[in-house]
Amino acid sequence: MEFVPAPAVHRVLCADCGTPIVPNSANLCVACLRNTVDITEGIPKQGLYRKSGIYEMDTHPHSHPALVAYCRNCERFLSPPAAWTIARPESPELLSICLKKLKGLNKVRLADAQFTWTDPHSKWLRVAITIQKEVLVNTILEQTFEIEFLVQYDQCPDCARLAVKNTRKTLVQVRLKISHKRTFFYLEEPIFKHNS
Fold first, then answer.
1. How many Å from the N-terminal Cα to the C-terminal Cα in the chain?
2. Are 105 and 127 a contacting pair, CB within 8 Å?
3. Predicted confidence (pLDDT) per residue in 116-160, tens digit
4. Are 24 and 13 in contact (CB under 8 A)?
5. DSSP for residue 97
6. What pLDDT sits at residue 158?
7. Cβ–Cβ contacts within 10 Å for residue 2, how many?
8. DSSP assignment, residue 167?
């Protein structure tokens, strides 16, 4: 057997802290690169804060409320833009609804997303998200952070229609100022055909 040495790995010092690292285009270590570049910029972490039992908007310009609408009658969540779907707590369907609510996720690559534990009776949902983004040439930075969503009680259109009696979906009014009645006959034929 002959001993073959492994190729030597050349190292350089980080430009900020002086730690020996494998050379990259920025010549910064991962910790210093995270301090200089924020890949989570534009993604809201939490848009509401609690002040004496009342949820108020945060005054930070990039913080948007991460609200998830939930109908208590039929136990469905609002899936943007207008579909109401059944989703169990901590299910992939609910995770998909939460991720659709986030703005700024299209600028990064989503590596992983999962729920973190919260009290079952809590109105907060916590999602741990891992994102990746190329910050410099051939330098990909990965970061994990938590986002909190507030479950807001709302009423879906189906339950709202059931709650109010004698509601109609459509109302058509036709006025005709001519001597013949052919237009009325053309309108009555499809109405009778579809049993409306």
1. 90
2. no
3. 888 878 888 888 988 888 877 777 888 888 888 888 888 888 888
4. no
5. H
6. 85
7. 3
8. -
